[in-house]
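Anyone have tokens for Probable protein kinase UbiB? Sequence:
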Amino acid sequence: MTPKEFKRLYRIVAILLEQGIDELVPAKFQPWPGRLARRSLFWLKDRAPQRSRGMRIRLAFEALGPIFIKFGQMLSTRRDLLPPDIAEELALLQDRVPPFCGQAARRQIEQSLGCPIETLFDDFDETPLASASIAQVHTARLRENDREIVIKVIRPDIEQTIEADLRLMTALARLVARFIPSSARLRPVEVVEEYRKTILDELNLMREAANAIQLRRNFTGSNALYVPEIYSEHCREQVLVMERIYGIPVSDIEALEANGTNMKLLAERGVEVFFTQVFRDSFFHADMHPGNIFVAREHPEDPLWIGIDCGIVGTLNREDKRYLAENFLAFFNRDYRKVAELHVESGWVPADTRVDEFEFAIRTVLEPIFEKPLSEISFGHVLLNLFNTARRFDMQVQPQLVLLQKTLLYVEGLGRQLYPQLDLWQTAKPFLEHWMGEQVGPKAVWNAIRDKAPFWAEKLPELPELVYETLRQARSQQRQFDHLFVQFSRHNRHQGQARYLLGVGASLLLVGVFLLTQKQYIAWGQISLAGTGLCWLLGWLKARSH
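Reply: yep, here.
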């Protein structure tokens, strides 16, 4: 670890101790080396012992920076895994992180756009509408059409803080991979590198603008998800301008119920939106914490989701989608044998894994969760049990699926808050069956032909020439193959002759040495040794000839 990484590590430890996080750990889980190390840092004292435990954790995350804030945001959606007081405090991290100075935001916007704010916008409000871990937003109006907008601006100097944390995480991941052999299946270095790419991409608001435009296009005309319009001509790396929306935060259950929202349909559409993004579009919003999700006030009986902050998106290739869909359907149908086989076939577990043992282990973990409403299922506990099972079978973490796993946790957390009785499995199963039906069978063949038809029609006039060229190349390659085969046969023949001569020479050498020990046969011995030299010379020449 470099001096800068040690400095950042010390800063993290200092913040945790000054917020009294160590006091939240029960004594039975504090080994004596840990207690001794804490006493040795006597100058780092708990600064506010009167604070609640939830506030301590929240303030520690805020002080530690954006990476820890995002971790807190994810935890805040899992109220089934956290006590209510901690979950409520962490929920404040979703859009109420302490803001930075509005004047600094104005200067950064003007520097990025290359002109005074008043040139493009009216009614710019220096008081931020919301503030998050990496950026904050300010309201204004577009001068060209008087539309209400929000301007998102990156926090000053945030990239240096993130880079320092990422370097520390990388160093720690390498240490874990080197000194803890059992961590190999978790692939800590690869996971950190995947997270590095994700978090650094989020610092480029031009990328977020492109993501939002793509997501908006994917759901044009949809009654399930609305993505605000992006004004790309005014977007820069550190500034994003988009339509202002008025919705109800998805975490405000009381407001949703007061508005008459159909909570069951809203929860089901959340599941539908997620699976549509993953399996239809291979392009999904991967930061779906409650601070980024709203519900339209209009038509509460036919609720519409509104998604913002598309800085983190995930993509899956065709093979990963296929394996995931088949795994999901096998789970829903309780076909644990199929689940085990798919894991082996995809390479997620070693090829020598005993499928029957793996099947039994998966059955033991998953069978108890079916036929229960969502309110009675703790997927956090299920995941822990699955990880323990995976450890037994040396299952490796798939870095390309980490974002998907995180988004699944978000979706489940939202579903639990909105409609605890939602049957996640039955909601998702028809969608997956329909998708799989389009990927295999006659319909899939027809769709492939339909999609490729324009390309084939374009290439049809070239078909005779392509056939002729293929036949000509095949004939040429056959001649080359015949020539190589003749050379190979000749080479083998010469090598065989060389080995024969070397063997005869070795035999003559043994005979010659024996004859030289007999006085009456010394002349014959000398002749044998001469024959040895001659055979070896001829053998060497044969071996060198090809």
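The chain has 21 helices and eleven strands.
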